Amino acid sequence: MSRVLRREDVQDYIGLLSDTWVLEQETMFLLRGDYGEDAYHEVRKNVDLNSRRRNNVAMIGQMLAKYACGVRSDHARKAYNSLTEEVQDKANEIISDLLGKVL
What we know:
By secondary structure, the protein is an all-alpha fold. The protein is built from seven helices and no strands.
């Protein structure tokens, strides 16, 4: 396991992505603006449900890492890539469903 993946904040992010209930709650907090004005505006600025070129699910995942766990984007990518494909798919599905419902 790499040094990055042993970091406590990165482990928290891995736990967030792996626990469907926690992921749903934290994603809702982010989408509703519960992490503050900066987070709310970042979501509104960077998420475009009409764009085929933008990976909105990945964008939300990066923002969750930043606002919920204090994890840098490069560390978040390593954490996400360390998950099994099954966990990745479930996390993507949850975020995608919530994006469609909330935004």
